[in-house]
Write a structure and sequence with these properties.
The complex is a heterodimer of chains A (343) and B (359). In chain A, strand 11 and strand 12 form a beta hairpin. The radius of gyration of chain A is 20 Å and the shape is globular. Chain A starts with a helix and ends in a 15-residue tail after the last strand. Chain A is built from twelve helices and twelve strands. With 343 residues, chain A is an alpha/beta fold. An eight-stranded mixed beta sheet of chain A has the order 6-7-8-3-9-10-12-11, sandwiched between helices. In chain A, strands 2-1-4-5 form a four-stranded antiparallel beta sheet, sandwiched between helices. Chain B has a domain of 183 residues: Orthogonal Bundle (MetI-like fold), CATH 1.10.3720. With 359 residues, chain B is mainly α. In chain B, helix 1 runs antiparallel to helix 2, helix 6 packs antiparallel against helix 11 and helix 9 crosses helix 11. Classes of the chains: A alpha/beta (343), B mainly alpha (359). At the A-B interface, helix 3, strand 6, helix 4 and helix 7 of A face helix 10, helix 11 and helix 14 of B. The structure holds adenosine-5'-triphosphate and magnesium ion (MG). The site of adenosine-5'-triphosphate has 14 residues of chain A, from helix 2. Adenosine-5'-triphosphate binds next to helix 2 of chain A.
Chain lengths: 343, 359
């Protein structure tokens, strides 16, 4: 029932957006691992050059969504739905096609830069490995390009970094090197999975500035996965919120800050430290996040929702166009007026 | 043998501690990069030197330990030589002849003095120089172990990598079960089964005999294949398990996920990333295995009647031939020390933090 309704809305949106073709379109993505359904009805769209944030509490399925885009889910995962990227359905693609897409069309960087790079392989080698994986180029050319890329991500003395191992660099430098590795073959989309979480605050700000600069210089789209709403608000023009394996809200950043259309992102905003006006109005979200393995009946957020009514426990809301644009998954979105945090 | 065990057992802990030490370094060409210099604190060269300096006390300690152990065994070489109905006078005469009537410390020091100059004395039984006996027996045992190790590495590493990559699939689990079977079968039983198959039924490999390498290398290796096979089977089971588990871990590690996320080919990911990361594990496992197989040659040399160290030692213990027992044990200890040193050195060399002296 819910799925059928969602489908009709997708069609409506597709026709309305046909003027600006989307780079990435995820339709109704469902992922289960070992028989447990972990993602359901995940839909999102990105246009070329767009910076989109993907937020949600721990366990809401952000990383799984990112990994699905690259076909990097564990071998035991079963995936249905569609992931259109530049006209190709990545879910139907075979391994060699996917390998071609990874690094050259879509790249992904990860949270722990140190654990995510090889400890016993010089960084330069790890970057040229990517070049050689996609292009037949002489080693010297690959090396030159790797050096250029390291310079581009703001590493001083790129030649020295080429021959360094991760233990010789700081966490921030490793994250920059991983970004260089991800971008050296010119992908159109970068999925950045919590790229700043493991770094200290000053480095976080630098990293966000770097991503912003790279996105504009390289005409790169970025899907920024993070817990940190402050970071997304800084960087992204649009914010997709996930809860319990579903996309529950998809709004422009300004709309979300002014007047959230869904109680969950509204609560997330108030729980984060970006309420500029009233820092005293700090309130967490009551209760623990629901597990996508055992989702609550009805609206998955209703047990924790301050605005829940009886019907919220009965009927699962579809992801529908919101009153103020965007899309939202709330039975009461038409009648609720939620408090934003911006000035 | 006790001395060998001891060295073999304590070595791995030392290894992990030393190689995990991030301040260790090797001097040389990379010192300009902020690494530590030759023989500086924490450098690989200094570590090796420390190890070498520990050799003499370890060898002397092991010698003393074995010396006392042999003395505890009831009876004596004189009884062993003369038999049950020996008169006390005859025994006393023989003991005086062999120097066994002197105080223990004096006996030990006399032996040690000789041993340090390469003279292990003469066999009580045959009167021939122990060093000569060892020189003849050592190559047999070393060859057997080397063939066993090479065979194990050739069999177990490809299988372990294969199993590790398929840890979640039936084929991977099947290999694991097979290796479990290999672990459960004792060497001597495997030897008997293999003799039956290859020697008795198929008549492919000789069951007995040994030709020195210098005489006829082909015949030499031909004769050592069957004795080495049980070691290869048992060793492969161990190495395959460890390599398989380590590979499975590495294949699901974050750095492999990153490499895949950038489109790096599965072959590069397997060998240059995952396998490279498990190399230190493999070195340690193979090093330990070499020591284990050195011990296992004892029984295989008996079964296949090979004139190696193990057979020499077993015979000497039976006859309470102290000089031979002590000499052979000392050689075992030295081999164990050298194997450990080589493993640690290689582990240091494949660890960039230690090799470069940066941390
Ligand atoms: N390989 C896996 N096998 C089984 N369950 C998994 C696996 N990977 C993830 N999950 C489960 O899927 C859910 C979503 O995981 P995911 O890693 O996508 O969350 P996340 O939103 O990225 O969280 P975090 O902010 O902690 O990174 C979690 O409940 C997690 O336990
Ligand atoms: Mg995550």
């Amino acid at each position: 029932m819910a799925i059928a309704r969602l489908g009709s809305h997708e069609d409506a949106r597709d026709s309305s957006c046909s003027s600006s073709p989307s780079l990435l379109e995820v339709d109704d993505l469902e992922v289960s691992i070992g028989g447990t359904q972990l993602l359901s009805e995940v839909s999102l769209t990105m246009r070329a050059g767009e910076l989109v944030g993907l937020v949600g509490e721990s366990g809401s399925g952000k990383t799984l969504t990112g990994l699905s885009l690259l076909g990097l889910l564990p071998p035991t995962a079963a995936v249905t739905g569609r992931i259109w990227f530049e006209g190709v359905d990545l879910i139907a693609a075979d391994q060699s096609r996917l390998r071609d897409v990874r690094g050259r069309a879509i790249s992904m960087i990860f949270q722990e830069p140190r654990a995510s790079l090889h400890p016993a392989r010089p960084l330069g080698k790890q970057i040229t490995d990517v070049i050689h994986a996609h292009e037949q180029v002489p080693a010297a050319d690959a090396r030159r390009r790797a050096v250029d890329m390291l310079g581009m991500v703001g590493l001083p003395d790129p030649r020295r970094v080429m021959d360094s191992y991760i233990h010789e660099l700081s966490g921030g430098m490793c994250q920059r090197a991983m970004i260089a590795m991800a971008l050296v073959c010119g992908p159109r989309l970068l999925v950045a999975d919590e790229p700043t979480t493991a770094l200290d605050v000053t480095i976080q700000a630098q990293m966000i500035a770097l991503l912003r600069r790279l996105a504009s210089e390289l005409d790169l789209s970025v899907l920024l996965i993070t817990h940190n709403l402050g970071v997304v608000v800084d960087l992204c023009s649009r914010i997709v919120t996930m809860y319990c394996g579903q996309v529950v809200n998809d709004d422009s950043t300004s709309q979300l800050l002014d007047e959230p259309q869904h109680p969950y992102p509204s609560a997330l905003l108030r729980a984060s430290d970006i309420s500029f006006d009233s820092p005293d109005d700090w309130s967490g979200i009551s209760g623990a996040p629901a597990s996508p393995a055992r989702p609550p009946r009805g609206c998955r957020f209703h047990p924790r929702c301050p605005h829940a009514q009886e019907r919220c426990a009965e009927n699962a809301p579809p992801l529908e166009p919101g009153r103020h644009g965007g899309r939202t998954r709330c039975l009461r979105s038409d009648e609720l007026t939620l408090q934003g945090v911006s000035r | 043998m006790t001395g060998v065990r001891e060295v073999g057992d304590t070595a791995p802990t030392e290894t992990t501690r030393d190689t995990a030490e991030p301040t260790a370094a090797r001097g040389g060409e990379k010192t300009a990069r902020g690494g530590r210099g030759w023989l500086e604190k924490g450098s690989l060269s200094r570590f090796v030197l420390t190890r070498l300096l520990l050799f003499p006390p370890t060898v002397v300690g092991a010698g003393l330990f074995t010396f006392l152990l042999v003395k505890i065994i009831p009876g004596g070489p004189a009884y062993a030589k003369l038999g049950e109905e020996a008169t006390p006078e005859a025994i006393a005469r023989i003991e005086r002849q062999l120097g066994l009537d002197r105080p223990l410390p004096e006996q030990f020091l006399a032996w040690l003095g000789g041993a340090l100059t390469g003279d292990f004395g003469e066999s009580f039984q045959t009167g021939t120089a122990v060093s000569g006996t060892i020189a003849a027996a050592l190559p047999v045992t070393l060859e057997l172990v080397v063939i066993a190790i090479i065979g194990t590495v050739l069999v177990a590493i490809p299988l372990g990598v294969y199993a590790g990559k398929r840890a979640h699939l039936p084929s991977g689990r099947w290999i694991r079960s097979a290796s479990g079977l290999g672990l459960a079968v004792p060497d001597f039983f495997a030897a008997l089964v293999l003799i039956t198959i290859f020697s008795v039924w198929l008549n492919l490999l000789p069951r007995l005999g040994y030709t020195p390498l210098t005489e006829d290398p082909v015949a030499n290796v031909y004769h050592l294949i069957l004795p080495a096979l049980p070691l290869i089977l048992g060793g492969s089971a161990i190495v395959m398990r460890q390599v398989g588990a380590a590979m499975a871990d590495a294949m699901s590690s974050d750095y492999v996920r990153t490499a895949r996320a950038m489109g790096i080919s599965e072959r590069t990911v397997t060998w240059r990333y995952a396998f490279r990361a498990v190399l230190p594990t493999i070195l340690n496992v193979v090093g330990l295995l070499a020591l284990g197989q050195l011990g296992a040659t004892l029984i295989l040399e008996e079964i296949f009647v090979l004139p190696g160290l193990g057979r020499t030692l077993v015979n000497a213990i039976g006859q309470l031939d102290y000089p031979v027992v002590l000499g052979v044990v000392l050689v075992y200890v030295c081999i164990a020390l050298v194997v450990n040193l080589i493993v640690d050195l290689l582990a240091g060399l494949v660890n960039p933090a230690i090799r470069r002296g940066t941390s």
